[in-house]
Every structure is written in C-alpha cells, then in structure tokens.
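[job 0412] stage=fold_complex status=start
inputs:
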Amino acid sequence: TLRRAQDELVQAGKLAAIGQMSTSIAHELNQPLAALRTLSGNTVRFLERGALDTASANLKTINELIDRMGRITASLRSFARRGDDQGEANLGKAVDATFQILGSRLETLPLTVHRHFSSAQLQIDQTRLEQILVNLMGNALDAMQAQPAPELWLEGDVADGKYRLRVRDNGHGIDPETRKHLFEPFFTTKPGEQGLGLGLTLSASLAAATGGNLAVEHPASGGTAFVLSLPLASPQQVESK
Ligand code: ADP
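[job 0412] stage=fold_complex status=done
writing structure:
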C-alpha cells in the first residue's frame, strides 16, 4: 500500500510538472505566433502595394521568429529524451569539445582559463555533459562581456562519491532578485533574442536524471560559480584535482 501511495505521489508530481511546463511552453510559443500572424498579414498588404523593401524586412523578421521557435522546441526535445541516461562521459573530452563549440565567441574575448580538474569518467551521456558545459560556460562568457580581464576557473574535486566541477567566472555576478528565478524555465535577463531562459533548467534536469545536481554559488570576491555534481563511472576512482 505504501509503495502504491508513493508511486501515485510521484505520478502526481510528474503531472504537476507537465502542467507547469505546458503553460510556459504555450506562453513562449504564443508570443512569436501572434507576431507571425500580424507580420504575415502586413506583408501581404505591403506586397499588394509594391512596398518590396518593407515586405522583405518583414519576411526576415518572420524567419528569425521561426528560428527562435525551432530553438525552443529543439531544447525541449532534448529535455524530454530520456533514452540515454546510462552512458559514460569523459570530462576532459567534454571540456575540450565545449571550447570548440564556443570557439568563435572566444576569439573576441581575452579569456584566461584555469584548468584544475582531472579527466574523470562520469556517469552521464557524453553529449549531455557537453550540453550542460556549453550552457554553463556560454553563460559565463555572456556575464564577462564587460570584464576587461575575464577569467574562467574549472575546478574539480570528489565529494560523497560524486565528481564536483565548479565553473566559476569573474563576470557581473547575479543580483539577489535574479537569484530566486535562475532555474525557472524561460527565465532570462538577456535582452532581445539572446536568451531563451532554458539553459539552467535543462542543465539541472540533465544532471538530476543521472543522480547528480547543479547548484549555484555567489563568491564574496564577485562573479558566479555553478557547481555540477555527477556520479563517477567507477566510484573507486577518487583522485581529486
Ligand atoms: P539564458 O542564458 O537563455 O538567459 P539560462 O537558464 O542559461 O538562460 O540563464 C538564466 C539567467 O541566469 C541568465 O539570463 C542570467 O541572468 C543568469 N545567469 C546564468 N549564468 C550566469 C553567470 N555565470 N553569471 C551571471 N548571470 C548568470
């Protein structure tokens, strides 16, 4: 009876989460849809009047909105996919791949990187780990745009049988009001089309799916640190650094 009650609670929790998620998704997709409707209606009128420049500018905006909707659904697909929770990832390889993905953004930033972690084998799919790191390091780069001497620390250690990777930056930090909403879906402080507000929600969810978690710290010295804890592939592998 107890087990059945627990199962029902889990099920109810899942349904509540789906309800909450659906509301946010509907909201996020309805905004561009409403804009698309107005824009396409106007474009027809501009074409009829022969105002081709305005019509083509509108079509460009329509393309951008469609891309944005595509990015939202693509992120959510990876959120829903639960098939490959069993894989193994190499941390060093994932960090290298992340720098490669962020490559073009690093060219314009005089970034100093401090690598203080071992190349641990972790219990998470390789692509998923890279997805998390791209989100965390991408956010760090965004936060350091106005920093004349941007620095990124990647510090690893082992705690409670899990590998802990701290991704710390010396960016603008996070103000107390923003801190409350960091892990909410679609919460972003980035202007215009820059932020979807899904990065931290997705990363935390991917970490949780493997028995790990994602937390945030606000160092007294400034900047922000995200701490990613993931189970080690073989728990006896406990060298730190
Ligand atoms: P997005 O990057 O699309 O805004 P995220 O979920 O990744 O969505 O991040 C949500 C918000 O958290 C960001 O808009 C930003 O305000 C804040 N944030 C995340 N990482 C950092 C960081 N390293 N430094 C400062 N603020 C951050």
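[job 0412] summary: The CA atoms of residues 59 and 112 lie 41 Å apart.
[job 0412] exit 0
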